[in-house]
Design a protein that fits this description.
Layout: H1 3-6, E1 17-22, H2 27-41, E2 45-52, H3 65-83, E3 87-93, H4 101-115, E4 119-123, H5 133-148, H6 159-164, E5 172-176, E6 183-186, H7 191-198, H8 207-223, E7 233-239
Parallel strand pairs: 1-2, 1-4, 2-3, 4-5
Antiparallel strand pairs: 5-7, 6-7
Helix pairs in contact: 2-7, 3-7, 4-5
Bound molecules: zinc ion.
Amino acid sequence: MTIETILPIPDIFSAKRILCIQPHYDDNDIAAAGILTQLAQKGAEVFYLTVTNDLMGVVDSSLSDDDAAEALKRDQFAAAKIVGVKEQYWLGYPDAGEYDYFAVRRDLLKYIRMLKPDFVFTCDPWLTYEGHRDHIQTGLAASEAVMFAGLTKIASSDPKVDSAYEPHDINGIAFYFTREPNFIADISSTWEEKIGALRCYEAQFDPQGLDQLVTALDAKSQQVAQGQAFPRGEPLKVLNTSALHVGI
Ligand SMILES: [Zn+2]
């Protein structure tokens, strides 16, 4: 018997309710819109939760914060329509700013207990050379919130959600932006949707920036699919939630 037989890699295609926790408005789609579109097409309910307000990346610096926020949400809703996202949530922490890690974790506990996802997607906080603290904090807080969702002595930011919560199973966590993938999703059938979704993010990229992003992802998606039976992929580290602690 091996540990893999006891804790097999969870089947991503079994996911029915998926909570995708991202630092910024576009991370879920840049990293995983291909597989998320497929899962939505297969009937999964996909929820997006964005941790920061993303205001630092808005290209037009003449916009007020309110107008910039509106532009970001407009773009995100347009992309969500293509991907098939059911609902969006925002926490509004200051982009690249100073905020409390445990406040984020409490909020993520709230949404996990409220939405009861069976799969969680987030960015890999252990990505080699990740210099953006929003990504490290979001990925780590999401990992802890997944581990601690059933431990109701650990309070979320909403006592009403905590008292109504009946512990449920989270079958797996999928990390994107990872250097150690154990699953390459075949995104050949949803590549066009992914690029269509990314082209919605006009507030954060000028036309040249969007072209560069698409060119880079075009190359990357083919590179990660080398040796596979399909031409384009998205790399993920998919773990049983029991594997999130002490490496078992
Ligand atoms: Zn980001």
